[in-house]
Structures are given as C-alpha cells and as structure tokens.
Design a protein that fits this description.
17-stranded mixed β-sheet; 33 strands; 419 residues; LysM; Jelly Rolls; mainly beta; LysM_dom_sf; Immunoglobulin-like; 4-stranded antiparallel β-sheet; 4 domains; LysM domain-containing protein
Length: 419
Amino acid sequence: MPAAVPASLRNLLLLLLLITLAGQAFAQQGQTHVVRPGDTLWDISRQYEQSPLHWRQIQKDNAVQVPEHLKPGQVLMLGGNVAIVAELTGSAWLTRGNAAQRPLARGAGVQAGDVLVTEHDAFLSMTLADGSHVVVPSSSALKVLVINGQVVRFELLSGRMESHVEKQNGRHFEIRTKSAELGVRGTHFRVRDEDNVVAVEVIEGKVAVDELAADPRNLLVGVAHGSLLSGSEALQSHQLPAAPERLESAIDGDILVAPQADASGYRLQLARDDGFLQLVHEQRSILPRFTLPDTLAPGFYHLRLTAFDKRQLEGLPSDSTVYVAASASRRSGAESLGDGRYKIRWPGRSGQTFRFELARTAAFSPLLAQDPAFYGTTVTVGPFVVPGKYYWRSTDISTGAADSAAALSFSGSFEVPAP
C-alpha cells in the first residue's frame, strides 16, 4: 500500500496545480508580455509558463530571430497564441478544433487552426507578433493556418480581409483563397470573396499570385492594381479605380460622393482611428450616396470611401474625417405646434437650396404650396382648418445637385385632426 502523502506536500502540489491552470487560462485569453530592459526569453518563460524551458516556443511563436536581442516595448504572444484580437465591434465567433463555437472578445488570443467569423455589421482587427494587422470586416470567415517564425498563412473562407503587413525579412506572409494563393512582401492590400467575386487589390507594395490549378499561372500585382482570381478575366492586372471625392464638408445623415463615370458602385467605412483598425460601420451602394443609420453615436469619425469598376474590383481609398450629428437631427418629419401649424424638418447642409412642395395627394397634384428656392432645412406650414392627410416633399436643387443621382430628396406626411 503506498505511503500517504503528507498534508503539507498535498497542499503544495494543489497550489502549484492552481497556479499552472491560472497561467494557462490567462494565456488562452490572450496574455501578452511587453518586453522591459533586461528581459530574457528564459525569464519570461519562467514567469508565465512556470518553467524556463519553454523559451524556444515563445521564440518560435513570436518570430524572435536572435533571443539575446529583445527590444524594450516589443509585445510577445504567450500560451500558444499567435495573434491578439486588438479591436472588435459587434459580434464575432471563434471555433478551435472540435470545441463548440464561442464568442470573441477584445484581447482574446488566436491560435493556429482557429476559424474566426464576423456577423453582419461586426468588425474585427488582429495584431500579429511582428506588428502586422489583419482586419476582418462584417460577414466574413477566416481560418488561421500557420503562424510561426518562418510562415504566416491564412485562408479566406468567405467575405473580406484587409492586411497591413510589416516587412517580412525573409519570412513568408501568405493568404489562400479557393482559387489562388497570395504571397506578400510587406504591403497594404485587400483580398475579397464576396458576391461571387474573388479578387486581390493592392494599395501599397506588391502581391504575388499563384493559381491553385493543375497548370497554374502566376502574376505579380503592383501598387494601385488588382486582379480577379476566378472567372474569365482571372489573373490579369488592372488599374484600380481612383479614390472617390467626397462632396460637402459637413454631414447631417447623408454622405455624397462625386460620381465616377465607370463606377458600378461605392463602399463607405467609418472608424474610430485613422488606420481603420477600429471599424464601426460600413455600407455598399450602387449610387454615390449613403444614408447613415440612427444607431451611430454622435461625434467625429474617420471616413473611407472606395469605388468599384465594372469588373467589381474595388479601388483606392479616400480618407477624411466627418462629424455625425445626433440621430434626431438626421431624421425628417413633421411636428404639430398645437395651433394648427406644423413644423417640418429634413437633413441638410449649410448652403443647400431645396424646392419645397405641399399637397393633399401623394401625387402632389394640385399643389397647396410651393417654394421653388427654399434656403434651410426647416419650414412651418399652416394653420390648417381642413382635417385630413397632407403630404410634403423637399428636393435638393443646389448647383449641380438637381441632375445628380446623389441629389437629396425627402418626403413625408402628417394628419390634421378634426376640430
């Protein structure tokens, strides 16, 4: 019969087990270490892994080429994590191995083999050990294949990803789609698999494309160029659409874009930071006009606009800042003033001219009132003595706006009660 374990030793072993489990839990949640002067991988391994012997794994996960040359301020990924969820807006999910899908949170660790999924209007940004950033916009799915000291490899399952890749210094940064594999040498680029379009678009640097086929072709896509990765025009380099110009400098609910002659559509993104890692909203429109939702908190945002060409290649971005007003000021409607008069308002900007019309029918015939050149976004009508439904509309007739697809137009109705 084995000898009984002394209580003091049993308690010590239990304490060590709890410390180990706690360390593993912290690491799984995305624990990192910021290098301080004098730090060594040996000491860091002993601090977080309860043994200095795991220093080589930390070196491999963080692509540390010379263990003796840690840089103060450098961020090291721990516990098998190869990336950290740096920013997250909305709901995103992670699947690891055969475990059930679980929600992601800011600061969570990401490991090789993980699958990340963003829901509609959700945005996720990851930071890798070398300082590269990967942005996964809404309605996208991405698998982390390999991240180590030699190779970074992702697989885009659906949707989009945008990467800001640091110079790789001999390492390989690769992204696989269903039809091609992309090799990156330090650049800013997008990869998309959405709406039956698989494409790569290079904002800065170069991307090497190799087909996944029995007789593969290859292509080097340069700055401001893109290529479809499937279809009849696959693996041809095309100039990307120019960065679109935003019209007006102030905003009250609508963003107007200067129309581009060959554009098939436009995309809008709003972010809290100028690097667009903290995305909060995006839209796509076939018209050069976007209406912002009432759910946006008022304040300043960074605005990014892009245009799509006839091939559905997405062009170069134009970035600016924009102020979003409180949601109440972005709505149109009629308010009773209690004396038979009604105050009607609609979104607009300083300097705009509107044509205002009022009628008893939705066809606006005949008109009860018309102001062909109204300056402002608020008008008071009445008093009314005849009960019933009244219809109103206002149309932007500012210089150049009336004949534009982006011209602002608002309409509504109100009910005058019987006395």
